[in-house]
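Bit of a strange request maybe. I'm writing a small parser for structure token strings and I need a real example to test against, not something I typed by hand. Could someone generate the tokens for this chain?
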Amino acid sequence: MANNKQLLTDIKLGLRQSELRPVYEVETERRRLPSRPGLRQDMATISGRENLGQAVFIRLLTPKGELTELGHPEYGSRLHELIGRQNTATNRNLVRLFILESLALEPRIEEIIEATVEPALGSRDRVNVLLRVKPVGEAAIVIIGPFTLELEQ
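Reply from user aminoacidic:
Good idea to test on real output. This should exercise your parser:
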């Protein structure tokens, strides 16, 4: 699997808690530094296709317009507008639309192959999302998910 430079490297986030509200923390790893003896704790990094998946999660969880003051007015998604709405076919279609709108602005994605939004089994307020995207400059498809979004609070 090629590590395409277009997909970049970033700090790796890990899910620490998913009850009530997801909480992510920066992952760490122990590594040896050439200039210092022994192992040191350092921030873990994530690259390539895995980084694209993480970047998509962050984009979708960030309310659109949240980064306007930093010069990124179009970054994020409108998914936050659906919090508190019922899990209906119409609202699931809005989830899909808001995901497609957001990912269309992701410069590392050449094509969105699939965006599936389905009701989560046994839950009235959650939907399962599965994404398949083609990164820029790669032939292989990246699968993101399945992951769950909660509509009602």
